[in-house]
Amino acid sequence: MATPLTADRLLRALRDEGLHVIEHRSWRTNNRNHKGPWGPTHGVMIHHTVSSGSASSVELCYNGHSALPGPLCHGVIDKDGTVHLVANGRANHAGLGDDDVLQAVIAERATLPPDNEANTDGNRYFLGFEAVNLGDGKDPWPAEQLLAIERAAAAVCRAYGWSERSVIGHLEWQPGKVDPRGFTMASMRTRIGARLDRDPDGPAEPEKPKPKPPTKPTKPPAVKPKPTPKPVAYEPFPGAAFFKAGRRSPIVTAMGKRLVAEGCGRYTVGPGPAWSTADRNSYAAWQRKLGYTGAAADGIPGKTSWDRLMVPNV
Predict the structure, then answer these.
(1) 247 Ramachandran zone, left/alpha/beta (phi>0; psi -120 to 50)
(2) Exposed e or buried b for every residue in 180-191, given b needs 16+ CB within 10 A?
(3) Which domains does the chain have, with CATH numbers?
(4) pTM > 0.85: yes or no
(5) What pairs with residue 47 in β-bridges?
(6) What are phi and psi of 207, to 5 degrees?
(7) DSSP letter at 17?
(8) Phi, psi at residue 306, to the nearest 5°?
(9) Cβ proximity of 123 and 90 under 8 Å
(10) Percentage of residues of the chain with pLDDT beyond 90
(11) Contacts of 68 (CB under 8 A, 6+ apart)
(12) Bias category Pro residues: which stretches (predicted)?
Protein backbone atom coordinates (compact mmCIF):
# COMPACT_ATOMS: atom_id res chain seq x y z
CA MET A 1 0.00 0.00 0.00
CA ALA A 2 1.63 3.28 -1.16
CA THR A 3 1.36 6.17 1.26
CA PRO A 4 0.91 9.53 -0.55
CA LEU A 5 4.15 11.46 -0.95
CA THR A 6 4.63 14.41 1.37
CA ALA A 7 4.92 17.83 -0.25
CA ASP A 8 8.67 17.92 0.43
CA ARG A 9 9.24 14.44 -0.98
CA LEU A 10 7.25 15.15 -4.16
CA LEU A 11 9.13 18.41 -4.71
CA ARG A 12 12.48 16.70 -4.16
CA ALA A 13 11.62 13.79 -6.47
CA LEU A 14 10.68 16.14 -9.31
CA ARG A 15 13.79 18.27 -8.94
CA ASP A 16 16.04 15.22 -8.62
CA GLU A 17 14.69 14.14 -12.02
CA GLY A 18 16.03 17.40 -13.51
CA LEU A 19 12.76 19.36 -13.68
CA HIS A 20 12.29 23.09 -13.20
CA VAL A 21 9.59 23.28 -10.52
CA ILE A 22 7.65 26.33 -9.33
CA GLU A 23 5.70 26.17 -6.06
CA HIS A 24 2.46 28.02 -6.80
CA ARG A 25 0.93 30.00 -3.96
CA SER A 26 -0.23 27.80 -1.03
CA TRP A 27 -0.06 24.52 -2.96
CA ARG A 28 1.05 22.57 0.11
CA THR A 29 -2.36 23.03 1.77
CA ASN A 30 -4.50 23.26 -1.38
CA ASN A 31 -6.59 20.07 -1.61
CA ARG A 32 -10.07 18.54 -1.35
CA ASN A 33 -9.34 16.18 1.53
CA HIS A 34 -12.60 17.34 3.14
CA LYS A 35 -14.53 15.70 0.28
CA GLY A 36 -13.16 12.18 0.61
CA PRO A 37 -10.15 10.00 1.43
CA TRP A 38 -6.73 10.60 -0.10
CA GLY A 39 -4.62 7.49 -0.68
CA PRO A 40 -3.27 4.94 -0.93
CA THR A 41 -1.58 6.16 -4.13
CA HIS A 42 -1.58 3.62 -6.95
CA GLY A 43 -0.52 5.53 -10.06
CA VAL A 44 0.06 8.68 -12.10
CA MET A 45 -2.58 10.10 -14.47
CA ILE A 46 -1.80 12.43 -17.39
CA HIS A 47 -4.31 15.04 -18.69
CA HIS A 48 -4.44 18.07 -20.96
CA THR A 49 -5.93 21.35 -19.73
CA VAL A 50 -8.06 22.36 -22.76
CA SER A 51 -6.63 25.85 -22.23
CA SER A 52 -3.77 28.05 -23.40
CA GLY A 53 -1.33 30.26 -21.56
CA SER A 54 0.76 29.18 -18.59
CA ALA A 55 -0.40 31.70 -15.98
CA SER A 56 -4.12 31.34 -16.67
CA SER A 57 -3.89 27.54 -16.89
CA VAL A 58 -2.06 27.33 -13.56
CA GLU A 59 -4.65 29.55 -11.88
CA LEU A 60 -7.47 27.48 -13.40
CA CYS A 61 -5.98 24.24 -12.07
CA TYR A 62 -5.30 25.80 -8.66
CA ASN A 63 -8.81 27.26 -8.21
CA GLY A 64 -11.05 25.23 -10.52
CA HIS A 65 -14.31 26.83 -11.68
CA SER A 66 -17.98 26.92 -10.72
CA ALA A 67 -18.77 23.55 -12.29
CA LEU A 68 -15.59 21.84 -11.08
CA PRO A 69 -13.98 23.14 -7.86
CA GLY A 70 -10.20 23.03 -7.62
CA PRO A 71 -7.58 21.95 -7.31
CA LEU A 72 -7.85 20.14 -10.65
CA CYS A 73 -4.50 18.32 -10.47
CA HIS A 74 -1.26 18.23 -8.50
CA GLY A 75 1.07 19.71 -11.10
CA VAL A 76 0.65 21.76 -14.29
CA ILE A 77 3.25 21.19 -17.02
CA ASP A 78 3.52 24.19 -19.33
CA LYS A 79 4.81 24.39 -22.89
CA ASP A 80 8.43 25.09 -21.89
CA GLY A 81 8.55 22.08 -19.55
CA THR A 82 8.16 23.92 -16.24
CA VAL A 83 6.15 22.08 -13.59
CA HIS A 84 3.90 24.27 -11.43
CA LEU A 85 2.84 22.51 -8.23
CA VAL A 86 -0.75 23.48 -7.35
CA ALA A 87 -1.99 20.87 -4.87
CA ASN A 88 -0.93 18.45 -2.17
CA GLY A 89 -3.61 15.91 -1.33
CA ARG A 90 -6.88 14.96 -2.96
CA ALA A 91 -7.45 16.79 -6.26
CA ASN A 92 -10.46 16.94 -8.60
CA HIS A 93 -8.78 15.45 -11.68
CA ALA A 94 -9.60 11.78 -12.25
CA GLY A 95 -13.27 11.45 -11.39
CA LEU A 96 -15.03 8.09 -11.48
CA GLY A 97 -13.32 5.40 -13.54
CA ASP A 98 -13.09 1.67 -14.12
CA ASP A 99 -12.21 -0.59 -11.20
CA ASP A 100 -10.70 -3.17 -13.58
CA VAL A 101 -8.28 -0.51 -14.86
CA LEU A 102 -7.28 0.31 -11.28
CA GLN A 103 -6.50 -3.35 -10.55
CA ALA A 104 -4.43 -3.56 -13.75
CA VAL A 105 -2.44 -0.48 -12.72
CA ILE A 106 -1.85 -1.86 -9.22
CA ALA A 107 -0.62 -5.16 -10.73
CA GLU A 108 1.35 -3.24 -13.39
CA ARG A 109 -0.07 -5.40 -16.16
CA ALA A 110 1.28 -4.92 -19.68
CA THR A 111 -2.22 -4.45 -21.12
CA LEU A 112 -5.03 -2.33 -19.70
CA PRO A 113 -8.66 -3.51 -19.91
CA PRO A 114 -11.19 -1.23 -21.63
CA ASP A 115 -12.48 1.58 -19.43
CA ASN A 116 -16.18 0.78 -19.80
CA GLU A 117 -17.34 1.53 -16.26
CA ALA A 118 -17.33 4.56 -13.97
CA ASN A 119 -17.57 3.01 -10.53
CA THR A 120 -14.34 3.89 -8.71
CA ASP A 121 -13.10 7.16 -7.16
CA GLY A 122 -9.90 7.97 -9.06
CA ASN A 123 -9.29 11.22 -7.15
CA ARG A 124 -8.39 9.07 -4.17
CA TYR A 125 -5.84 6.84 -5.87
CA PHE A 126 -4.02 8.86 -8.56
CA LEU A 127 -1.55 11.72 -8.66
CA GLY A 128 -2.49 13.94 -11.62
CA PHE A 129 -0.49 16.14 -14.00
CA GLU A 130 -2.26 18.55 -16.37
CA ALA A 131 -0.28 19.53 -19.48
CA VAL A 132 -1.13 22.89 -21.06
CA ASN A 133 -2.73 22.05 -24.42
CA LEU A 134 -6.00 22.85 -26.19
CA GLY A 135 -6.61 19.14 -26.74
CA ASP A 136 -7.92 19.70 -30.26
CA GLY A 137 -5.34 17.49 -31.97
CA LYS A 138 -3.79 20.58 -33.60
CA ASP A 139 -2.15 22.37 -30.69
CA PRO A 140 1.51 21.25 -30.80
CA TRP A 141 3.34 19.36 -28.07
CA PRO A 142 6.84 20.90 -27.80
CA ALA A 143 9.70 18.49 -27.14
CA GLU A 144 10.41 20.28 -23.85
CA GLN A 145 6.85 19.65 -22.65
CA LEU A 146 6.85 15.96 -23.61
CA LEU A 147 10.20 15.53 -21.87
CA ALA A 148 8.79 17.16 -18.73
CA ILE A 149 5.77 14.81 -18.76
CA GLU A 150 8.18 11.88 -19.06
CA ARG A 151 10.36 13.19 -16.23
CA ALA A 152 7.48 14.06 -13.90
CA ALA A 153 5.87 10.63 -14.25
CA ALA A 154 9.24 8.89 -13.91
CA ALA A 155 10.02 10.91 -10.76
CA VAL A 156 6.88 9.65 -9.03
CA CYS A 157 7.46 6.09 -10.24
CA ARG A 158 11.07 6.21 -9.02
CA ALA A 159 9.96 7.50 -5.62
CA TYR A 160 7.56 4.57 -5.22
CA GLY A 161 9.61 1.90 -7.00
CA TRP A 162 7.00 1.53 -9.74
CA SER A 163 7.48 0.76 -13.43
CA GLU A 164 6.08 2.81 -16.31
CA ARG A 165 2.95 0.61 -16.20
CA SER A 166 1.73 2.66 -13.23
CA VAL A 167 1.25 5.66 -15.55
CA ILE A 168 -2.03 6.05 -17.48
CA GLY A 169 -3.92 8.71 -19.38
CA HIS A 170 -7.34 10.04 -18.41
CA LEU A 171 -8.72 8.45 -21.57
CA GLU A 172 -7.63 5.03 -20.24
CA TRP A 173 -9.46 5.55 -16.95
CA GLN A 174 -12.80 7.25 -17.51
CA PRO A 175 -15.27 6.42 -20.32
CA GLY A 176 -15.66 9.25 -22.83
CA LYS A 177 -12.42 11.10 -22.02
CA VAL A 178 -9.86 11.82 -24.77
CA ASP A 179 -6.96 13.34 -22.86
CA PRO A 180 -4.14 13.51 -23.43
CA ARG A 181 -4.75 14.07 -27.14
CA GLY A 182 -1.82 14.51 -29.52
CA PHE A 183 0.46 11.65 -28.40
CA THR A 184 -0.18 8.08 -27.32
CA MET A 185 0.18 6.84 -23.77
CA ALA A 186 1.92 3.72 -25.11
CA SER A 187 4.70 5.89 -26.58
CA MET A 188 4.94 7.93 -23.38
CA ARG A 189 5.17 4.78 -21.23
CA THR A 190 8.01 3.58 -23.47
CA ARG A 191 9.86 6.83 -22.82
CA ILE A 192 9.23 6.63 -19.07
CA GLY A 193 10.43 3.02 -18.96
CA ALA A 194 13.64 3.94 -20.76
CA ARG A 195 14.25 6.76 -18.28
CA LEU A 196 13.66 4.49 -15.28
CA ASP A 197 16.21 2.01 -16.68
CA ARG A 198 18.93 4.68 -16.71
CA ASP A 199 21.62 5.22 -14.09
CA PRO A 200 19.86 6.13 -10.78
CA ASP A 201 22.94 8.15 -9.69
CA GLY A 202 22.37 10.83 -12.28
CA PRO A 203 21.23 11.75 -15.77
CA ALA A 204 22.48 9.63 -18.63
CA GLU A 205 25.34 11.09 -20.62
CA PRO A 206 25.28 10.94 -24.42
CA GLU A 207 27.54 8.32 -25.89
CA LYS A 208 30.73 9.63 -27.43
CA PRO A 209 31.01 8.97 -31.16
CA LYS A 210 33.31 6.13 -32.04
CA PRO A 211 36.46 7.19 -33.92
CA LYS A 212 36.42 6.42 -37.62
CA PRO A 213 38.88 3.75 -38.70
CA PRO A 214 41.80 5.02 -40.80
CA THR A 215 41.26 4.80 -44.54
CA LYS A 216 44.71 3.31 -45.07
CA PRO A 217 46.45 0.74 -42.89
CA THR A 218 49.23 2.23 -40.82
CA LYS A 219 52.71 0.79 -41.08
CA PRO A 220 54.01 -1.10 -38.07
CA PRO A 221 56.68 0.74 -36.11
CA ALA A 222 60.25 -0.10 -36.89
CA VAL A 223 60.92 -0.99 -33.26
CA LYS A 224 58.34 -2.85 -31.21
CA PRO A 225 57.48 -1.06 -27.99
CA LYS A 226 58.17 -2.76 -24.73
CA PRO A 227 55.13 -4.63 -23.42
CA THR A 228 53.25 -2.71 -20.77
CA PRO A 229 51.76 -4.39 -17.72
CA LYS A 230 48.24 -5.60 -18.31
CA PRO A 231 45.83 -3.22 -16.55
CA VAL A 232 43.47 -4.53 -13.88
CA ALA A 233 40.13 -5.46 -15.43
CA TYR A 234 36.99 -4.34 -13.65
CA GLU A 235 33.46 -5.64 -13.88
CA PRO A 236 31.33 -3.51 -16.21
CA PHE A 237 28.13 -2.10 -14.73
CA PRO A 238 25.54 -4.90 -15.13
CA GLY A 239 22.55 -2.50 -15.00
CA ALA A 240 20.27 -1.52 -12.12
CA ALA A 241 17.83 -4.31 -12.96
CA PHE A 242 20.55 -6.88 -12.13
CA PHE A 243 20.28 -6.07 -8.42
CA LYS A 244 17.09 -7.85 -7.41
CA ALA A 245 16.49 -9.55 -4.07
CA GLY A 246 17.93 -13.08 -4.12
CA ARG A 247 20.06 -12.58 -7.26
CA ARG A 248 23.04 -14.96 -6.92
CA SER A 249 26.29 -14.11 -8.65
CA PRO A 250 30.02 -13.94 -7.90
CA ILE A 251 29.71 -10.29 -8.89
CA VAL A 252 27.64 -9.63 -5.75
CA THR A 253 30.37 -11.20 -3.58
CA ALA A 254 33.11 -9.21 -5.31
CA MET A 255 31.11 -6.02 -4.90
CA GLY A 256 30.58 -6.73 -1.19
CA LYS A 257 34.30 -7.24 -0.62
CA ARG A 258 35.03 -3.88 -2.24
CA LEU A 259 32.38 -2.19 -0.06
CA VAL A 260 34.00 -3.68 3.05
CA ALA A 261 37.42 -2.46 1.84
CA GLU A 262 35.97 1.05 1.44
CA GLY A 263 34.62 0.99 4.99
CA CYS A 264 31.01 0.77 3.84
CA GLY A 265 30.25 -2.84 4.72
CA ARG A 266 27.05 -3.34 6.69
CA TYR A 267 27.23 -7.11 6.90
CA THR A 268 26.66 -9.37 9.91
CA VAL A 269 27.75 -12.38 7.88
CA GLY A 270 29.23 -12.12 4.42
CA PRO A 271 29.35 -10.69 1.92
CA GLY A 272 27.78 -13.63 0.11
CA PRO A 273 26.74 -14.45 -3.41
CA ALA A 274 23.05 -13.45 -3.05
CA TRP A 275 21.90 -9.80 -3.25
CA SER A 276 20.33 -8.94 0.10
CA THR A 277 19.24 -6.07 2.30
CA ALA A 278 22.74 -5.98 3.78
CA ASP A 279 24.19 -5.49 0.29
CA ARG A 280 21.75 -2.65 -0.42
CA ASN A 281 22.50 -0.97 2.93
CA SER A 282 26.23 -1.29 2.25
CA TYR A 283 25.90 0.18 -1.21
CA ALA A 284 23.77 3.04 0.13
CA ALA A 285 26.63 3.82 2.54
CA TRP A 286 28.99 3.91 -0.46
CA GLN A 287 26.68 6.27 -2.36
CA ARG A 288 26.52 8.57 0.66
CA LYS A 289 30.31 8.45 0.91
CA LEU A 290 30.44 9.73 -2.66
CA GLY A 291 28.13 12.60 -1.74
CA TYR A 292 24.79 11.32 -3.03
CA THR A 293 21.66 12.02 -1.00
CA GLY A 294 17.95 11.29 -1.10
CA ALA A 295 16.70 9.04 -3.89
CA ALA A 296 20.22 8.95 -5.41
CA ALA A 297 21.46 7.07 -2.29
CA ASP A 298 18.86 4.31 -2.25
CA GLY A 299 21.36 1.43 -2.35
CA ILE A 300 20.65 0.42 -5.95
CA PRO A 301 23.92 0.62 -7.93
CA GLY A 302 24.17 3.10 -10.78
CA LYS A 303 26.90 3.27 -13.39
CA THR A 304 28.69 6.32 -11.96
CA SER A 305 29.02 4.95 -8.42
CA TRP A 306 29.76 1.42 -9.73
CA ASP A 307 32.67 2.61 -11.87
CA ARG A 308 34.13 4.44 -8.88
CA LEU A 309 33.86 1.34 -6.68
CA MET A 310 36.10 -0.59 -9.17
CA VAL A 311 34.81 -4.13 -8.65
CA PRO A 312 37.44 -6.55 -10.10
CA ASN A 313 36.46 -9.11 -12.74
CA VAL A 314 35.41 -12.46 -11.30
Answers:
(1) beta
(2) bbbbebeebbeb
(3) 7-197 (3.40.80.10), 240-309 (1.10.101)
(4) no
(5) 130
(6) -70, 140
(7) T
(8) -65, -45
(9) yes
(10) 74
(11) 92
(12) 212-230
The answer to whether 28 and 88 are in contact (CB under 8 A) is yes
Q: What angle do CA 171, 175, 180 make, to 5 degrees?
A: 15
Which of 58-72, 259-273, 290-304 reaches the highest mean pLDDT? 58-72
d(CA 245, CA 274): 8
137: Cβ–Cβ under 8 A, 6 or more apart, which residues?
181, 182
pLDDT of residue 227: 65
pLDDT confidence of residue 268: 84
- Compute the distance between CA of residue 262 and CA of residue 279 in angstroms, rounded to an integer: 14
Q: How confident is the model at residue 232 (pLDDT cuts 50, 70, 90)?
A: low
Q: Tell me the CA distances in angstroms from 152 to 11, 179, 213, 258, one per residue in order.
A: 10, 17, 41, 35
Phi, psi of 36 (to 5 degrees): 165, 175
Q: How far is CA 177 from CA 50, 109, 259, 293, in A?
A: 12, 21, 52, 40
Q: What is the DSSP string of 207-219?
A: PPPPPPPPSSPPP
The letter for the amino acid at 188 is: M
- 185-198 average pLDDT score: 94
Angle (nearest 5°) at CA 163 between 50 and 244: 165
Q: Is the pLDDT of residue 218 over 70?
A: no
**Bridging pattern class, strands 167-169 and 120-121:** unpaired
Distance CA 288, CA 44 (A): 29
Amino acid identity, residue 41? T
CA distance 110 to 124: 23
| 204/227 Cα distance (integer angstroms) | 36
Residues 104, 108, 110, 114, Cα dihedral to 10°: 20
The pLDDT confidence band at residue 231, using thresholds 50, 70 and 90, is low
Residues 6+ apart with CB under 8 A from 112: 101, 104, 105, 168, 172
